[in-house]
């Protein structure tokens, strides 16, 4: 699960960097809707990081195997938008 988490965090960081660059370029008052969507996208990046942090904080030695499998599947779903990335591993495909 560690490789998948590292992969997701790297993609989220890239997404955030792209969004912040777009927000810097937008700057014009007429672009309020676009800025709103970009702000929402940044919030989504933060939410994804929080989910990953929660998964990392779980002591998997003391949790049922079914919980581990559930969280792994959840992270695999989070990785689906990045399937075309060269770092995406076929083992993560559902």
Give a nutshell description of this structure.
By secondary structure, the chain is mainly α. The protein has helices at 2-26, 32-57, 65-79.
What can you tell me about this protein's structure?
With 94 residues, this protein is mainly α. 70% of the residues lie in helices and 0% in strands. It contains three helices and no strands. The protein has helices at residues 2-26, 32-57, 65-79. Helix 1 runs antiparallel to helix 2 (32-57).
Q: Tell me the radius of gyration.
A: 16 Å
Characterize the largest beta sheet: strand count, sense, and whether it forms a barrel.
none
Strand segment tally: 0
Structural class: mainly alpha
Which segments are poorly predicted (pLDDT under 50) over 5 or more consecutive residues? Answer: none
Helix content: over 70%
Shape: elongated
Order of helices and strands: HHH
Q: How many alpha or pi helices?
A: 3
- Strand proportion, as a percent range, falls in under 5%
Q: Output mean pLDDT.
A: 88
Oligomer description: single chain
Calculate the terminal CA-CA distance, rounded to whole Å: 14 Å
């Amino acid at each position: 699960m560690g490789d998948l988490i590292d992969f997701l965090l790297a993609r989220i960081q890239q997404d955030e960097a792209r969004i912040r660059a777009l927000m810097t370029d937008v700057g014009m008052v007429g672009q309020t809707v676009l800025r709103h969507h970009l702000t929402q996208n940044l919030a989504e990046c933060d939410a994804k990081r929080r989910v990953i942090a929660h998964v990392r904080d779980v002591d998997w030695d003391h949790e049922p195997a079914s919980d581990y499998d559930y969280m792994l599947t959840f992270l695999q779903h989070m990785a689906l938008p990045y399937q075309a990335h060269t770092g995406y591993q076929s083992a993560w495909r559902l």
